Amino acid sequence: MATCLISAGRLRNLRRTTTARHSYCSSLTCGRQNVNGVDLYYEKTGTGKHAVVLLPGALVVGWDPRGYGLSRPPDRDFPLDFFENDARDAVDLMRTLGFVKFSLLGWSDGGIAALIAAAKNPALINKMVIWGSNAFVSQQDLDIYKAVCDVSTWSTRMRAPMEEVYGAEVFAKTWEAWVNGIEQFAHRPQGNICIDLLPLIRCPTLIIHGEKDPIVPSCHPYFLLKHIRGSRLHLMPDGKHNLHLRFPEEFNNLVEDFLQERQND
Ligand code: TYC
Asked: Residue 70 and residue 17: Cα distance in Å, rounded?
């Protein structure tokens, strides 16, 4: 199976740092596509039949969701339906680019958007891999958001790549807006982001989680495993939130094997 990836920004590392069994793309094209009123930036590579879209986490660029990376303007905002918007944009981008059916790879916030996209478009989604994602916001999560809200307390290593893309001031403001945006879900019963949608997911789903993830506690992958029919959980003992960057070979092999597996049903 050759795979067609749509990705940008930091998730380029998936290809750059990989020593996985297949070398990824020979060719890379990038472009902007107007989707739902916004010019979305994307990169595309590969020629295979199995299309895959990569959905990045907050403020990390993949296909660039509206308001992130090179899909600006508009400025990013975080209304209560921001994950729904990202899910719809990702699906509509793929469809506008001519893909009939595709798989979703979503990291962190991108995984939340992937969950929503899969639940709402079961006929379009082939398979899904998500890592570092959550379907609700707990008190423990709120405590963590509070601890990471002020980016001036972050290490330079963490902050610098973001500041390079957004500028220091915009990054600090947007991150604070993200924290306020995600905290809104805590006011809903069970801190619901997309709990009610999980039973609607029909595609084979692989959940990956780093056991040392300091910002997304392990209750989240177990909750997803319980509520997504037929899903599988792979724990990486030394993985943190950025497990795909830290362990690219293990991660890529895991994802490739899952995407290539034949489905029984
Ligand atoms: N969800 C964020 C992302 O998409 C990561 C994150 C999770 C940040 C939890 C803070 O407390 C946090 N990159």
From this structure: 22
Q: Is the CB of 108 under 6 A from ligand 1?
A: yes
Q: Which domain holds residue 12?
A: 5-133+194-260
CA of 57 to the centre of ligand 1 (A): 7
Cβ(149) – ligand 1 distance below 6 Å:
no
pLDDT tens per residue across span 235-245 = 999 999 999 99
Q: How many domains in the chain?
A: 1
Give the pair of three-digit tokens for residue 4. Answer: 């067609």
Residue 106: give its domain's CATH number. Answer: 3.40.50.1820
CA 102 – CA 46 distance, rounded (Å): 13
Q: Any idea which residues carry the catalytic annotation?
A: 108, 213, 241
What tokens does 206 get?
Answer: 């692989």
Q: What is the pLDDT of residues 75-113, one digit of tens each?
A: 999 999 999 999 999 999 999 999 999 999 999 999 999
**Ligand 1 centroid to 101 CA: how many Å?**
28
pLDDT (tens digit per residue) in 45-54: 888 889 899 8
Q: Does residue 169 sit within a domain? A: no
Asked whether residue 150 is domain-assigned, the answer is no
Q: Let me know if residue 211 belongs to a domain.
A: yes
Q: Output the CA 242–ligand 1 centroid distance in Å.
A: 10
The Cα–Cα gap between 147 and 10 comes to 24
User: Is 105 a domain residue?
Assistant: yes
